[in-house]
Write a structure and sequence with these properties.
By secondary structure, the protein is an alpha/beta fold. Helix content is about 40%, strand content about 15%. The radius of gyration is 16 Å and the shape is globular.
């Protein structure tokens, strides 16, 4: 079994990396728009979507980044959303020649609060979420999707998230649990100053999963970063504010 991916268009390479429990189909509109003048690679991460039966020996950000890198023709702009941001950061740190530019969407270097990191959820929330998955799998995932929407945001975004989540069957529980463990354990703050790739940090100002302070920290610590805060957006600004996202992304990639 190998990683499932789709590739469209011709031109500079860009790879779109989805978040936890989702799959590459969540990028459909963005991929279609970019493929007019780019070669766009859209993978389903191991254990997700059409890669549901493929799991690496280790479910780490580095292992996931390596599987994505294997299907790329060469250096690319890596666009990582949420968990995909961990994967993109791991690629930029471990294999900088593969990352021409870096775009972090709804991303954070650390998902769990600590005494020196307030820009995250308490560990107890993530642990309760894992417990709820065991008791009511579908309802728990549905609540997670609801959190991705900002108050007052278009409900069509939530419908799209729900439609994509189960399009290729239920995400395997083993992959979801391993993904949660990754989110609990990762802390990439110390690595940020050593990442030289030009970076665009795109973040919804009303993100309820990753507080906006995490985006400001990323932009401050990455040496060549710029920050774009999207007014009124939640955790998925590429869905809720697609035109804005594409305009900023294209300017960044071709600028």
């Amino acid at each position: 079994m190998t990683l499932y991916y789709e590739q469209h268009g011709q031109g500079p390479d860009v790879v779109l990396v989805h978040g936890w429990a989702q799959h590459g189909g969540i990028w459909t509109d963005v991929a279609r728009a970019l493929s007019a003048d780019c070669r766009v690679t859209v993978p389903d991460l191991p254990g997700h979507g059409r890669s549901r039966d493929f799991l690496p020996r280790e479910f780490t950000a580095e292992a996931l980044a390596e599987e994505v890198r294997r299907v790329l023709p060469g250096p690319a702009t890596w666009v990582g959303w949420s968990l995909g941001g961990f994967v993109a950061l791991a690629a930029a740190q471990r294999d900088p020649q593969a990352v021409a530019k870096l775009v972090l969407v709804g991303a954070t270097p650390k998902y769990v609060q600590s005494t020196d990191w307030p820009h995250a959820m308490p560990l107890t929330v993530l642990e309760q979420f894992a417990l709820n998955l065991e008791q009511d799998y579908v309802a728990t995932l549905d609540r997670f999707l609801s959190l991705q929407l900002a108050a007052g945001e278009d409900r069509a975004v939530l419908r799209r998230l729900r439609d994509e989540l189960f399009r290729h069957g239920e995400p395997p529980a083993a992959a979801l649990y391993q993904g949660l463990q990754l989110l609990k354990q990762e802390d990439r703050r110390a690595a940020l100053p050593g990442i030289a790739a030009p970076t665009l940090v795109v973040h919804g100002e009303r993100d309820r999963i990753v507080p906006v302070g995490a985006a400001r920290f990323l932009a401050a610590q990455l040496p060549r970063a710029q920050l774009d805060l999207v007014p009124g957006a939640g955790h998925a600004p590429f869905l809720s504010h697609t035109s804005h996202f594409l305009e900023r992304l294209k300017d960044f990639m071709h600028g």
